[in-house]
C-alpha cells in the first residue's frame, strides 16, 4: 500500500488528531486515515441548493417580527398586567388563533400585506421594515417642513393630543452637544387608540441655541403656527435617557413618552423668548 509523509505539519492540527485518536480509541495513523477518508467523501457529496427566494424572505420576515415583539417588551409598551406572549399578541390583533403568527415567526408562513398592516396599526411599526427590512422599525419621518399636515387632524378634536418631546443629551467632554440634543419629537395621540403617529424635527429647526438664520426662521414659523392654533392640545416634555448614535428611531413611541418628563419650555417659547434665553431643562426662563 502507498505511504504518506507530511513535512511541516501544523502542531495544533497534530494535537487535534491525537485527541481524536484517543477519543475514538484508534492509533494516530488510523485516525488520520479515517479523517482523510471522510474529507474525500465530503468533496463528492452534492452541495445543497440555495434556498428559494420565498423561503429566504419568509425566514427574514419571521426574524423581524420576532425582533419587533422583543423590542415592544424591552420598550415597556404593554400596559401593566397586559400579557404579551404570542397567543395574547395574536388575540390583540383580532386573530382567531395564534398559529398563523407563530408560523410567520418560524418562517413557515408568509407575512401577508393584511397582517403587516394590522401589526403597523396596532404597534405603530413600519410595514416597509416588516416586509423588506427597509428603514427603521418604527417610522419617524422628518416633519420639520410639514408639521401643519401632521398637526391638522388634532385641530378642534379634544381626544387628540400633540405631545412635543425635546431630547436632552449631556455635552461631551469637548463641549459639543449630543447628536440628538434639541431634536423635537412630535407625537399625535388619540385617546383609546393604540396607534401613535410620530415625527421629528432636527434639520429644519431644533429646540436650542446656535441655529443659523434659516433655522431660527423655521422655528419662528413653527411657534407662530402653535400660537394660531390654541384649540389644539399641546403638551411639552423633556426626554433625558441616553441614546446611542443610530438607535433613536429603533424605539417605539411609548419608549419616549413613558420616559419623558413634563417641561416648562413651551410657554416661554410661545411668548417669543429667544431660544438662547430659554432654560430648556427647567420650568423657568
UniProtKB/TrEMBL annotation:
InterPro entries: FitA-like_RHH (IPR053853), Lambda_DNA-bd_dom_sf (IPR010982), Ribbon_hlx_hlx (IPR010985). Residues 2-38 form the Antitoxin FitA-like ribbon-helix-helix domain. It comes from the Bacteria. GO terms for biological process: regulation of DNA-templated transcription. GO terms for molecular function: DNA binding. SUPFAM superfamilies: lambda repressor-like DNA-binding domains (SSF47413), Ribbon-helix-helix (SSF47598). Pfam families: FitA-like_RHH. This is Antitoxin FitA-like ribbon-helix-helix domain-containing protein.
Amino acid at each position: 500500500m502507498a505511504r504518506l509523509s507530511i513535512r511541516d505539519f501544523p502542531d495544533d492540527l497534530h494535537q487535534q488528531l491525537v485527541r481524536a485518536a484517543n477519543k475514538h480509541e484508534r492509533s494516530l495513523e488510523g485516525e488520520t486515515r479515517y479523517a482523510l477518508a471522510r474529507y474525500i467523501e465530503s468533496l463528492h457529496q452534492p452541495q445543497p441548493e440555495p434556498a428559494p427566494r420565498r423561503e429566504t424572505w419568509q425566514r427574514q420576515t419571521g426574524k423581524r417580527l420576532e425582533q419587533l415583539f422583543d423590542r415592544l417588551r424591552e420598550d415597556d409598551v404593554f400596559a401593566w398586567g397586559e400579557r404579551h406572549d404570542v397567543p395574547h399578541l395574536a388575540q390583540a390583533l383580532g386573530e382567531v388563533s395564534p398559529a398563523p403568527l407563530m408560523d410567520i415567526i418560524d418562517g413557515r408562513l408568509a407575512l401577508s400585506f393584511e397582517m403587516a398592516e394590522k401589526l403597523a396599526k396596532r404597534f405603530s411599526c413600519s410595514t416597509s421594515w416588516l416586509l423588506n427590512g427597509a428603514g427603521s422599525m418604527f417610522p419617524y419621518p422628518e416633519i420639520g417642513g410639514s408639521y401643519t399636515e401632521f398637526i391638522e387632524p388634532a385641530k378642534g378634536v379634544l381626544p387628540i393630543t400633540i405631545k412635543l418631546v425635546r431630547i436632552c443629551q449631556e455635552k461631551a467632554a469637548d463641549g459639543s452637544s449630543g447628536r440628538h440634543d434639541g431634536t423635537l419629537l412630535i407625537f399625535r395621540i388619540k385617546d383609546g387608540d393604540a396607534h401613535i403617529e410620530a415625527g421629528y424635527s432636527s434639520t429644519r429647526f431644533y429646540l436650542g441655541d446656535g441655529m443659523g438664520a434659516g433655522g431660527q426662521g423655521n422655528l419662528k414659523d413653527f411657534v407662530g403656527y402653535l400660537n394660531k392654533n390654541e384649540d389644539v392640545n399641546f403638551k411639552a416634555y423633556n426626554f433625558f435617557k441616553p441614546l446611542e448614535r443610530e438607535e433613536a428611531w429603533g424605539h417605539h413611541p411609548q419608549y419616549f413618552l413613558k420616559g419623558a418628563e413634563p417641561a416648562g419650555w413651551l410657554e416661554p417659547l410661545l411668548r417669543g423668548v429667544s431660544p438662547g434665553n430659554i432654560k430648556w431643562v427647567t420650568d423657568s426662563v
